[in-house]
Amino acid sequence: MSEPAVKVSVVTMYQARQEIYPRDVKGWYANWRWACVWLTQIVFYGLPWMSWNDRQAVLFDLAARKFYLFGIVLWPQDFIYLALLLIICAYALFLFTAVAGRLWCGYACPQTVYTEIFMWIERKIEGSRSARMRLDKQSWSVDKLLRKSSKHLAWGAVALWTGFTFVGYFTPTHTLLREVATVTFGPWEWFWILFYAFATYGNAGWMREQVCKYMCPYARFQSSMFDRDTLTVTYDAQRGEPRGARTRKAAGAAFGSCIDCSMCVQVCPTGIDIRDGLQADCIGCAACIDACDMVMDKIGTPRGLIRYATENAMVQGLGAAEIRRRAFRPRILIYSGILFVIVALCAGSLFMRTPLKMDVIRDRGAMGREVEEGMIENVYRLQIMNTDERQHRFRISVSGIDSIALASPDQVELAATDSRGVPVRVRIGHGKGEKGANKIAFEIVAIDDENLRVKEEAVFIVPR
Asked: Which residues cross the membrane (predicted)?
């Protein structure tokens, strides 16, 4: 007796990508997205060309370990400000997400911004959504080759300029421009320009929605920041269902407001159907709102079938005023309060920051030695950093023990944004101080500006 045949099914672990052809859409939210594109790119591409005090306004000079931000010069010792900046960005992300979902993803994320730019180039060269779909289905011809090659050349030019601009934040842009003219890039400059250009070209030109759906971690944990009063892009199923195509005259009794035109799907950059409810793949760009409003205008139905709304608003039928009132809930107030305090502390610290730093390093090779006339001498190294963009001459003084004085020059001159190690010898008279460690303090003061001063404690060793 033969055994029954076993049915074998193959389950693939990888789903092939379905090409998405987003339709161009006009509307209020589309205008806001393009305003964000212009704003972010004017800042990104423009900052490296701005001058401040005869230097680049924003420059992260890693070789010199100096970071220029307009009138502020930061050093590695100022790493705390980077930590504060990251904390501010994190809390701002929490706040904006709790209020209105993925605002960052939909309007200002670099992936969204450059995808918008690359899709605009694609539309200008290959045509509308239907034209692009027809072009991809056609066999290769001279016209198709010209359009495809022109698109990729344009993408490559934007990507290379983006890579050049990125490196311009670390190497002065005018220096880079001269190196372009003479083809004298260093190996690291070549690497980072090409790497950043390749990342821009690949992410915005080819991968697009796959970055948002599979690579970006934000979509995975965004729901933990949502609550029932968070604004999200929402389809009003009570008003829209049952959906179906119909004439304008028949729109009323048998059907809901949704005519099942699929425009909301066609304009979605990630290819989802918002009518299926809130999804992790939705980046909150609101393109579907603009598309649906346009359709509602054409069929003479009120706008808002797809709109920004909250879960409570949809269930309880809340109006705009009630939604705004619920926005000021405890969670939002706590996020806002913490964010305000951190920003105020960071701004206050930068405003009150003294552009002068000093580290005191005692010579550990000599714990304290006796010199002429029984005096005790300790040797130190003062690491002085003038973070001001003016040259200063500083006076060095020491205090803490009776008769303590410098036995080395008490003045030093530092150029703008300069750092120098200054060896100093400190002496006290015979019989002064206590045996062992004695607390002392070094102070440096700018001769031309008495307000520019800094004081650091140290230890003076008297041999037992």
From this structure: 32-50, 81-105, 153-170, 190-207, 332-352
Distance CA 272, CA 65 (A): 47
Asked if 66 and 73 touch (Cβ cutoff 8 Å), the reply is yes
37-48: b (≥16 Cβ within 10 Å) or e: beebbeeeeebb
Q: Tens of pLDDT along 208-218?
A: 989 988 888 88
Q: How many CA atoms lie within 13 A of 334 on its CB side?
A: 5
Report d(CA 331, CA 251) in Å as an integer: 42
Of 73, 70, 84, the C-alpha closest to 346 is 84
Write phi, then psi, for 458 (nearest 5 degrees). -150, -175
Quickly tell me which residue has 């001058």 as its tokens.
Answer: 51
What CA–CA distance (Å, rounded) separates 253 from 256? 8
Kindly provide the b/e burial profile for residues 261-285, where b requires at least 16 CB atoms within 10 angstroms of the residue's own CB: eebbbbbbbbbbebbeebebebbbb
The pLDDT > 90 percentage for the chain reads: 48
| Confidence tier at 317 by pLDDT (50, 70, 90) | confident
CA dihedral 252, 257, 259, 263 (to 10 degrees): 160
Q: Yes or no: say if 17 and 210 are a contact pair by the CB < 8 Å rule.
A: yes
> In CATH, what is the architecture of 356-462?
Sandwich (2.60)
pLDDT at residue 22 above 70? yes
pTM above 0.70, yes or no: yes
The encoded tokens of residue 159 equal 């990507």
39-57 pLDDT, tens per residue?
999 999 999 999 988 889 9
Interior angle at CA 83, CA 80 and CA 87, nearest 5: 140
Measured CA to CA, the distance from residue 144 to residue 147 in angstroms comes to 5
Coil, helix or strand at residue 371: coil
- What are 81's two structure tokens? 């400000």
What token pair was written down for 438?
């004695």
Provide CB contacts within 8 A for 276, sequence distance 6+.
none
User: What is the sign, positive or negative, of the torsion defined by CA atoms of 124, 128, 132, 134?
Assistant: negative
| Beta strands 436-446 and 392-399, pairing class | antiparallel
Residue 242 dihedral angles phi and psi, to the nearest 5°: -75, 140
Each domain of the chain, given as residue ranges in start order, spans 20-353, 356-462
Amino acid letter, residue 162: T
Q: Which of residues 126 and 4 earns the better pLDDT score?
A: 126
Secondary structure class of 8 (helix, strand, coil): coil
How far is CA 229 from each of CA 9, 105, 320, 335, rounded to the nearest angstrom?
Answer: 44, 19, 12, 15
The pLDDT assigned to 224 comes to: 79
Instruction: Yes or no: say if 98 and 331 are a contact pair by the CB < 8 Å rule.
Output: yes
